[in-house]
C-alpha cells in the first residue's frame, strides 16, 4: 500500500525505503526512535492497536512522502513538527481519537478531509468544524471512569428516580390488594370500624324482628 494505492513490486526496490507493518495486532506507543530512519520514504502502521500521542520526533523524517497511522487508538493533538516534512504527499490519520487544531503550513495545506475522518474532536481547515466554538472537546472515558461515576451516583443515597419508582410501585400493589380484599371478603377490622361509627345499622334488624313477632 503506497499512498493509498495497492502496488505490486516485482522485485525488491533499491531506491525506495519503506516500512509497512499494517493490519497486525501491535500495541503500545509509536517508537520515537523512528526519527533515526533518515532515508525512510514510506511508513504504514495502520490497522493496529497503537495508542498514545503521535511522536513529534516524526517531523525529523525529512524524506518521508507517505505516512499512514489510520485505524489505531492514537490520542492527543497532531504535532506541529509534522509540518516540517516538506516531501509528505500522502497523510492518513483517520479513525483515531485525535483532538485539537489541525496544523497548517507546508504540505498540510494540501490534505483533504479524508486524512482526518473519524476524529470527532479535530477542528480547523480542511474540516468544516471550526476551532474556538462553544463545543467542548470530547475526551473518551475509560471503562474504569464510567464505573466510578456509576458507583458514586448510587452510593450517594436515594435519588429522586428511586423515590418515584418506589411510590408508583407501592400505589399499584396497594390498589390491587385493596380491590381483592373487598371482592372476596370484607375484612373484620373494616366491618368493626364502621359498626362503631354507625351503630344504628345493626339495631334495625332487631326492630324488624320484633315487628314480625307481634
Structure description:
The protein has two domains: 18-140, Leucine-rich repeat, LRR (right-handed beta-alpha superhelix); 152-213. The protein has a five-stranded parallel β-sheet, with no helix packed on it. It is 29% helix and 14% strand. It is elongated and about 105 Å long. The chain has 214 residues and is α/β, with parallel strands linked by helices. It starts with 17 loop residues before the first strand and ends with a helix. The longest helix has 25 residues, at 160-184.
In short:
With 214 residues, the protein is of the alpha/beta class. The chain has four helices and nine strands; from the N terminus they run βββββββββαααα.
Topology:
Elements: E1 18-20, E2 27-28, E3 42-44, E4 49-52, E5 66-68, E6 73-76, E7 90-92, E8 97-101, E9 121-123, H1 143-155, H2 160-184, H3 188-197, H4 200-213
Parallel strand pairs: 1-3, 2-4, 3-5, 4-6, 5-7, 6-8, 8-9
Strand order of the largest sheet: 2-4-6-8-9
CATH superfamily of the largest domain, by name, is Ribonuclease Inhibitor
- As for the number of domains, it is 2
Radius of gyration over C-alpha positions, nearest whole angstrom: 38 Å
CATH topology title of the largest domain: Leucine-rich repeat, LRR (right-handed beta-alpha superhelix)
Q: Count the helices. How many?
A: 4
Largest sheet: 5 strands, parallel
| CATH class membership of the largest domain | Alpha Beta
Subcellular location: Cell membrane
InterPro entries: Leu-rich_rpt, LRR_dom_sf
Family: Belongs to the RLP family.
Membrane topology: Single-pass type I membrane protein
Amino acid at each position: 500500500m503506497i499512498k493509498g494505492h495497492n502496488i505490486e513490486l516485482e522485485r525488491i526496490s533499491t531506491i525506495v525505503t519503506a516500512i509497512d507493518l499494517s493490519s497486525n495486532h501491535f500495541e503500545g506507543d509509536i517508537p520515537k526512535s523512528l526519527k533515526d530512519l533518515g532515508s525512510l520514504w514510506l511508513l504504514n502502521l495502520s490497522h493496529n492497536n497503537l495508542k498514545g500521542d503521535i511522536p513529534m520526533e516524526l517531523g525529523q523524517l525529512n524524506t518521508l512522502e507517505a505516512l499512514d497511522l489510520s485505524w489505531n487508538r492514537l490520542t492527543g493533538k497532531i504535532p506541529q513538527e509534522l509540518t516540517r516534512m516538506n516531501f509528505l504527499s500522502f497523510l492518513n490519520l483517520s479513525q483515531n481519537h485525535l483532538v485539537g487544531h489541525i496544523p497548517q503550513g507546508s504540505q498540510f495545506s494540501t490534505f483533504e478531509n479524508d486524512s482526518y475522518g473519524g476524529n470527532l474532536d479535530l477542528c480547523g481547515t480542511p474540516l468544516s468544524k471550526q476551532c474556538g466554538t462553544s463545543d467542548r472537546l470530547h475526551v473518551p472515558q475509560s471503562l474504569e471512569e464510567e464505573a466510578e461515576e456509576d458507583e458514586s451516583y448510587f452510593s450517594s443515597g436515594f435519588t429522586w428516580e428511586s423515590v418515584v419508582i418506589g411510590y408508583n410501585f407501592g400505589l399499584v400493589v396497594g390498589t390491587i390488594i385493596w380491590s381483592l380484599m373487598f371482592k372476596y371478603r370484607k375484612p373484620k377490622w373494616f366491618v368493626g370500624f364502621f359498626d362503631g361509627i354507625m351503630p344504628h345499622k345493626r339495631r334495625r334488624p332487631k326492630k324488624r324482628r320484633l315487628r314480625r313477632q307481634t
